[in-house]
Amino acid sequence: MDFPLELLAPSVAARSGTWARLGVTCEVRPVAPNYGKAVVVCEFESADWLGNLMIWVTGETELATIDTVHDRSVNKHYDLTAPADLDALLDELVALLADGRIPDAALIF
């Protein structure tokens, strides 16, 4: 089953008020064919955080962040299978950026 990559842009846009409140700018790039394994990327930045979210058509997803205040990276792998999984991921991202809540199974270094 292919994950619907076109959901990322409206899902990010639906949280525009949250991003603004947190001082986060987001840019979702167009879906790229990527040699037969399509991918969509969202890059985000604030005064304290830099990062990106990469979702492949297979549902494999990587969240990579840099916390510039605490000099650490917080990264996590996801396997998205449904739109609700994307919502849960974005909720975890908001909790990380807003409150520093580390997602379960995240890699911190």
In short:
The protein has one domain (5-101). The chain is globular, with a radius of gyration of 13 Å. The model has no long low-confidence stretch (mean pLDDT 98).
Describe it for me?
With 109 residues, the chain is an alpha+beta fold. It has one domain. The protein has three helices and six strands. The protein has helices at residues 8-13, 16-22, 83-99; strands at residues 25-28, 39-45, 49-56, 60-67, 72-79, 107-108. It has a six-stranded antiparallel β-sheet. A hairpin with a 3-residue loop joins strand 2 (39-45) and strand 3. It is globular. The relative contact order is 0.18. The mean pLDDT is 98.
> Which class best fits the helix and strand makeup?
alpha+beta
Q: Shape from CA axes? A: globular
Radius of gyration: 13 Å
Number of strands: 6
Beta-strand percent range:
25-35%
Strand order of the largest sheet: 1-2-3-4-5-6
How many domains in all? 1
Number of helical segments with 4 or more residues: 3
Largest sheet: 6 strands, antiparallel
Question: Helicity level, as a percent range?
Answer: 25-40%
Termini separation: 33 Å
Mean pLDDT: 98
Order of helices and strands: HHEEEEEHE
Low-confidence stretches: none
